[in-house]
Write a structure and sequence with these properties.
single chain, about 350 residues, alpha/beta, Rossmann fold, 5-stranded parallel beta sheet, 15 helices, 11 strands, globular
Length: about 350
C-alpha cells in the first residue's frame, strides 16, 4: 500500500500564497466539553491557515454573521451541522467538511449497551444500500467539499454514502513541530521513565480497558492520559479496577501544556490499541521525536506510518502485549521521526487545505 506520506510529498515543495479568502471554521457546540484530537485538529488547522495567508477564524455565531465570510469549514460528522450547512448554502457560501469519521462493523459492535445492536444493524444496511437516506448521507451530499484525513476514509465515503470522488480531497492530519524536540523534564506525577504512554479520551472506542487487561502483571510502567467522556464513567471505573500498581492515571493534559512534551520525551513507547484511529494525533506527536508506536490495524495508521509502526488488533491481548514489548526493545526511531517531520506538520495540512479551497473557486 502506498503510504500517505508518499502521496503528499509534493505538497511540501509548494509555496503558499496570500489569499483574501475569509473562512469561518466551526465545530460541534459541545466540542470543548471533552476535547480530543478533533478539537486540536480544528484549532491547529485554523492557526496554520492564517500562517499561509488565509483569513480563517473560529466562528462565533452570536457575534459574527455568516454573511461576513466566503466559505464555511466544518469539522466532524455530526447531525447538528446540517442546519448550519443549509443556512450557509442559502447565503451563497461554499462549504467544506473535515469528516473525521470511520465506519466498520467492529466499531459499531463496540458501542455501549444495547446501542451496539442498532449501530451494527445500521452499518450492515448502509453497506448493502448506500443510497438509503440518513442524516450523514444528507450532510455529506449537502457540502461542496469533503476533506477526509486518509485515502481509506475517502473510500468509505464513496462506498457507504455514494459521495463522488470529485467532491473529495484527502488532507493529512498534522502535529505541532514543538514535539520534534520535546522538553525532557521529570514530572512529579510520573515516578518512572521508559514507560508506555496511552493517551486519549477515556471511552470504549479508545479501548483503554483492553490495553490494561493485556498489560496487567507485565511489570511495565504504564501512563494513561485523558479525561472521561461524559457517559463513560462506569467504563473508567472498570479501567481503574483493571489497573495494577504499575499504572498511573494523569487525567487530561491541555494540548499546549509543557508537561505533554515531557511525557513524550520520557516515554519508551506509545500505544493506542483503539478500535480505530484516523490516525491519532498523539501518534503523530509522539512519532515526531521517534517514539516507537503500537497502533490499531483498523483505521488510517498503516497509511501514514507504513512499516515504521507496529499494528495490533484491539481484541488481541497477547498481540498487544507482545507488540508493546517489541516497541520498548526497539528504542527511538530516527526514520519515523524524519517521516513525520517531513510530511505531517500543520503547515502541510494548511497548504493542502488551501489547495482544496482553490478547487471551489
Amino acid at each position: 500500500m502506498q503510504t500517505l506520506a508518499r502521496s503528499q510529498a509534493a505538497v511540501l515543495e509548494q509555496v503558499s500564497r496570500p489569499s483574501t479568502l475569509r473562512v469561518a471554521v466551526a465545530g460541534r457546540v459541545t466540542a470543548m466539553a471533552a476535547p480530543g484530537g478533533g478539537e486540536v485538529q480544528l484549532q491547529a488547522t485554523t492557526q496554520a491557515l492564517c500562517a499561509v495567508g488565509i483569513d480563517a477564524v473560529l466562528w462565533r455565531p452570536w457575534e459574527q454573521p455568516l454573511e461576513e465570510f466566503q466559505l464555511l469549514h466544518v469539522f466532524g460528522s455530526a447531525a447538528e451541522h446540517l442546519p448550519l450547512v443549509h443556512a450557509a448554502k442559502k447565503l451563497g457560501l461554499r462549504v467544506a467538511l473535515s469528516t473525521i469519521a470511520w465506519y466498520d462493523l467492529a466499531c459499531s459492535w463496540r458501542e455501549p449497551g444495547l446501542r451496539k445492536f442498532s449501530a451494527s444493524a445500521k452499518f450492515l444496511l448502509r453497506a448493502a444500500c448506500p443510497w438509503i437516506p440518513a442524516w450523514r448521507r444528507r450532510l455529506y451530499h449537502s457540502v461542496d467539499l469533503l476533506l477526509p484525513n486518509s485515502q481509506a476514509e475517502a473510500e468509505q465515503l464513496q462506498r457507504y454514502f455514494g459521495v463522488p470522488s470529485s467532491k473529495i480531497v484527502v488532507v493529512p492530519n498534522g502535529a505541532d513541530e514543538r514535539f520534534a524536540a520535546p522538553a525532557n523534564e521529570p514530572l512529579s506525577e510520573v515516578p518512572h521513565e521508559n514507560y508506555v504512554l496511552y493517551a486519549g479520551r477515556i471511552e470504549s472506542r479508545k479501548n483503554q480497558l483492553g490495553f490494561l487487561r493485556a498489560m496487567r502483571g507485565s511489570g511495565i510502567p504504564l501512563v494513561i492520559v485523558g479525561d472521561v467522556v461524559p457517559g463513560y464513567e462506569d467504563y473508567f471505573k472498570a479501567c481503574q479496577q483493571a489497573a495494577d500498581e504499575s499504572v498511573t492515571f494523569l487525567g487530561r493534559i491541555p494540548h499546549g501544556d509543557r508537561r505533554l512534551e515531557c511525557l513524550y520525551a520520557r516515554a519508551g513507547a506509545l500505544c493506542l490499541a483503539s478500535w480505530f484511529e484516523t490516525p491519532g494525533l498523539v501518534a503523530l506527536e509522539a512519532g515526531m521525536s521517534g517514539v516507537p508506536l503500537v497502533l490499531p490495524i483498523a483505521g488510517a495508521a498503516p497509511e501514514y506510518f507504513g512499516e515504521l509502526a507496529q499494528y495490533v488488533h484491539s481484541n488481541d491481548r497477547r498481540g498487544i502485549r507482545a507488540a508493546v514489548e517489541r516497541a520498548l526493545a526497539r528504542g527511538r526511531d530516527a526514520a519515523l521521526a524524519d517521516l513525520v517531520r517531513r510530511n505531517f506538520t500543520w503547515s502541510t495540512t494548511a497548504q493542502r487545505t488551501g489547495e482544496a479551497y482553490a478547487c471551489l473557486a
